[in-house]
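User: My instructor asked us to take a sequence, write out its structure as tokens, and then describe one feature of it. I'm not sure where to start. Here is the sequence I was given:
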Amino acid sequence: MTSPQLGAIIEALTPPGLPEPVSVSEQVSLDQGWNAEDADRFHHKAQGTQTLPIPLSWFLALEAPLNSPFAIPFFKRERFADNRYLLRFGFIKSELAPQIRTVA
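Assistant: Let's start with the prediction itself. The structure tokens for your sequence are:
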């Protein structure tokens, strides 16, 4: 196999780069008159959009993709549901995610 062919194969196997997480200096929560449990339930419940129609336990077990197929044996995989991954796509930072994991 020649070098240009190998380069083309590597390029085809490498996914596009992920966007950088959006840096937010302040997250404001308005007073809705809810207690912490009600707010947690509302903010972690489907609001009419179903992105992944799978059970919560499956979603929490998903791993975030790596940027290179060659990194698989060398790097620890992050969880798909971690803030570090989801913030890249415009999700709102959640401090309550560990509590959800213990419930599932």
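For the description part of your assignment, you could build on this observation: The radius of gyration is 18 Å. Try explaining in your own words what that tells you about the chain.
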